[in-house]
Write a structure and sequence with these properties.
Length: about 450
C-alpha cells in the first residue's frame, strides 16, 4: 500500500512540474525515475528485480527486439521501452541530416513559389504538407521547421503568421496520428503492443484522412479573412525566396532524400521483412552518419533532452505498473463499463483527449498502455480496438491547448521568439473546437467499424 501511494505521489509531482515548466522537463522526468527506483523499489519494496524490470536492459538482448521473422511479436514492454528510445533517436539523426542538406527549406519554398506566395493558398498547402510529413517524421520536427518557414514568409510578405502556425500544429498532430512513426504516443503504443506501421495506417490512418478533409476547410473558414498580405507583389519576393538557394550541396541533398525514402520503405514494409522499428531506427542513423562528413557535429544537434525525458518517464510509469496502480485503474474502468467495449471506447477516447489537453500526451500514453493491456486481458475485449482509441484520444486531445503536445510547445515557442506570441485564448478558440470535432468523428468511426 505504501509503495502504491509513493509511486502515485512521485508521478503526480512529475506531471505537475512538467506542466508548470519551472524546470527542464527532462530533468523532472529523470529525477522522478531515479526517485521511483531508489525510494519505491529499493527502500520500500526491497526489490532489485523491480529495478531490473524498470531499466529493461534485458529486452535488447532478445533476438526479437531486432528481428521478428515473418510473424508479429505482440509483447508488452515493462519499464523503459528501448524500442521507442532507439527508433526516435535514429529518426532524429536522420532528420538533422536532412535539415543540414536544406531539404525542409527547399520543400517549403518550393510550395510557396507554386502558390505564388499568396497567404491563403499557403495556409492550405502548409496544412496538407504538415499532415503528410508528420506521417513519416515526428510532428515535433515537422513543426520546428514549418513554423520557422511560416514566420520567414510572413515577414517578407507582411502577413500574420499565427493562423498558419496554429493550423500547422493541429494538422501535424493529425497527420502524426495516422502512422506509427508520426506522433510519440503512437510510437509508444506501437512498440509496446507489437503493432506495425501498416496496422496504424489502415486503422488510425483512415480516421485521420477523413478528419483532414474536415479540418482543412474548418481552418480555411476560420482564417481566410485574417491572412491578408500587405506586401507589394513583384519579382523581388520570388528572387529572395528562390528554393534552389536552400540547397548548398546537390550531392548531400540527393543522399539525404535517398536515405529518407529508404527509411520510409523500411517502415512501411517492416511487418513483412521482420525488421523491428528499433532496427529501422539504427539503419537510419548509420546511413545518415556514415554519409556525413561531420558525424559528431550532427550528433551534437540531436535533441538528447527529449531522449532523456523518455527514459525518465518510462521508469516513473514502471513505478505505477510494478506496484499494481495501473492494474487497479484498469479494474476501475472495467467496473464502470461492465465489460462493454462500446462504453470502454467512449471513456478511453474522451478521458485520453481531456487529459492530453492539459498534460503532455507522451506521459499519458505511456501510462495508459499497460491499462488498456490489462483491460483487454481481464475483460476479453480486443486490444487493438483500445489501442486505436487511445491513439486518437491522446494525439488529437493533445492538439486542443498550447501545452497538450510537444509540437504545440515547439510551434508556439518559435512564434513567440520571433515576435508573434500566441495566447491561450487565441490558440484554444480555434484548436479546441477542431479537437472536439475530430474526437467525436474518431469515436463514431471506431464504434461503427469495430
Amino acid at each position: 500500500m505504501l509503495s502504491q501511494i509513493l509511486a502515485i505521489v512521485i508521478f503526480v509531482i512529475m506531471f505537475v512540474e512538467i506542466v508548470r515548466e519551472r524546470f527542464p522537463r527532462y530533468l523532472v522526468a529523470l529525477v522522478a525515475g531515479a526517485t521511483t527506483m531508489v525510494v519505491v523499489f529499493l527502500l520500500v519494496m526491497h526489490s532489485t528485480e523491480a529495478v531490473a524490470m524498470a531499466l529493461s536492459f534485458q529486452s535488447m538482448m532478445e533476438p526479437t527486439f531486432w528481428y521478428t521473422g515473418h510473424e508479429a511479436v505482440n509483447e508488452v514492454n515493462t519499464g523503459i521501452n528501448w524500442s521507442t528510445i532507439i527508433f526516435i533517436t535514429g529518426m532524429m539523426v536522420m532528420v538533422e541530416g536532412m535539415s543540414e542538406a536544406g531539404f525542409f527549406d527547399w520543400l517549403c519554398l518550393q510550395l510557396a513559389k507554386m502558390v505564388n506566395y499568396k497567404p491563403v493558398p499557403l495556409l492550405i498547402c502548409f496544412m496538407i504538407l504538415s499532415a503528410v510529413l508528420s506521417m513519416f517524421i515526428d510532428s515535433i520536427t515537422v513543426i520546428l521547421f514549418l513554423a520557422v518557414a511560416s514566420v520567414s514568409l510572413a515577414n517578407l510578405l507582411k502577413f500574420d503568421p499565427v493562423p498558419l502556425i496554429i493550423a500547422e500544429i493541429f494538422t501535424a498532430n493529425l497527420g502524426g496520428a495516422a502512422t506509427m512513426s508520426g506522433d510519440p504516443p503512437n510510437i509508444i503504443i506501437g512498440t509496446a503492443l507489437g503493432l506495425s506501421f501498416g496496422d496504424f495506417l489502415v486503422n488510425t490512418g483512415l480516421i485521420a484522412l477523413v478528419a483532414l478533409v474536415i479540418v482543412v476547410p474548418y481552418f480555411y473558414f476560420c482564417f481566410r479573412k485574417e491572412l491578408v498580405s500587405h506586401a507589394e507583389p513583384g519579382a523581388l519576393a520570388a528572387m529572395e525566396l528562390d528554393p534552389k538557394a536552400a540547397i548548398h550541396s546537390k550531392k548531400k541533398f540527393a543522399i539525404s532524400v535517398g536515405i529518407f525514402l529508404a527509411v520510409v520503405i523500411l517502415l512501411i514494409t517492416h511487418a513483412k521483412t521482420g525488421l523491428t522499428v528499433s532496427t529501422v531506427g539504427v539503419i537510419a542513423a548509420i546511413l545518415t552518419l556514415g554519409t556525413n562528413k561531420s558525424p559528431f557535429h550532427l550528433l551534437k544537434r540531436v535533441d538528447w533532452q527529449t531522449v532523456l525525458f523518455f527514459i525518465g518517464l518510462f521508469v516513473a510509469v514502471s513505478g505505477l505498473e510494478e506496484t499494481g496502480v495501473l492494474e487497479a485503474m484498469a479494474s476501475g474502468i472495467a467496473a464502470i463499463t461492465g465489460g462493454s467495449l462500446t462504453i470502454m471506447v467512449i471513456i478511453i477516447i474522451w478521458l485520453s483527449a481531456i487529459a492530453s489537453a492539459f498534460v503532455d500526451n507522451i506521459p499519458f500514453a505511456a501510462t495508459m498502455v499497460p491499462v488498456i493491456t490489462s483491460l483487454s486481458a481481464t475483460m476479453g475485449v480486443d486490444l487493438h480496438t483500445l489501442a486505436w482509441t487511445l491513439s486518437m484520444g491522446t494525439d488529437i486531445g493533445g492538439s486542443a491547448t498550447p501545452i497538450g503536445a510537444s509540437a504545440n510547445v515547439a510551434g508556439t515557442a518559435i512564434a513567440a521568439r520571433d515576435g508573434h506570441p500566441i495566447s491561450w485564448g487565441k490558440y484554444c478558440k480555434y484548436s479546441a473546437p477542431a479537437a472536439v470535432i475530430v474526437i467525436a468523428l474518431s469515436m463514431v468511426m471506431i464504434l461503427l467499424r469495430y
